[in-house]
Design brief:
Elements lengths: L1 E6 L7 H14 L3 E4 L18 H11 L4 E4 L2 E2 L5 H14 L4 E6 L4 H7 L6 H20 L6 E4 L4 E5 L13 E4 L5 H9 L2 E5 L3 H17 L8 E10 L3 H10 L4 H7 L1 E3 L1 H12 L5 E5 L6 H11 L5
Parallel strand pairs: 1-2, 1-12, 2-3, 3-5, 4-5, 5-8, 8-9, 9-10, 10-11, 10-12
Antiparallel strand pairs: 6-7
Helix pairs in contact: 1-11, 2-3, 3-5, 6-7
Length: about 300
Amino acid sequence: MKLRIFTEPQQGASYEQLLKMALAAEQGGFDAFFRSDHYLHMGEGDPGPGPTDAWITLAALARETERIRLGTLLTSATFRLPGPLAISVAQVDVMSGGRVELGLGAGWYEAEHRAYGIPFPETAERFDRLEESLEVITGLWGTPTGGSFEFAGRHFQLSGGPGLPKPLQRPRPPLILGGHGRRRTPALAARFADEFNVPFASPADCAALYGLVDGACEAAGRDPASLKRSVALVCCVAEDEKTFARRAAAIGRQPEELRENGVAGSPAEALEKLDSYRQVGASRVYLQLLDVDDLEHVDLLAKEVLARLG
């Protein structure tokens, strides 16, 4: 099982804060540093400096890190046209030396679309656009050099697309799809994804959704074992109860709720919870760290959880 650090910068984080956490994650030996792709603070509290753009952030981190993988969980297909997004991700992949992964979703947070003037279609159309976006992005990346990519979809039409620049990774950067959808999401994952992610769910719910994506793979003629399974979980770990309570309060959560719904409590409790997800098929866990200034938390997780994970 691999552990990845996952941040939510729309809750209030500057680039410098994210850089410090990414470097701490890399130094600690974590597999990847991921961030959400949102433009608006969620819930109450101080929005801090405001949002940062996910792919601008990752481009900068690509040049300031050396080993750790970088990606989004998840970029909304409503935010960017698929052709320019394919260019951006390919460029960041080259800038990073081939360490980028693209998590892409249909989008769900209507308020951020209103706040920044981004169209927000109905659910069915958003999934249609996501499907076409995946076809366009993979099509552009897969177009032979010197060739051209043609696409005539309902929402996107491309003619004479050169499919440049090419990403460094071959055949392409890994694609991550996920969510709680029970029909279209598993079908799209079976068709396009390298990894299927379930956000903030119990082991039993993950097992059920993994089963749906197994069925979708089989229906598509794909070996289900070729698709990695992952889960994203809030994380709050400490060596003593006083520090645990302080960390929980800092992110506006209750200790017992965190123990129930996240990777939380003592390092031993965290390891036990992680094992429960391993048993249902998760090979990667995204640890959502909501206090981006608590670098001691990252260090503790590296030394007392990651190092003992096995």
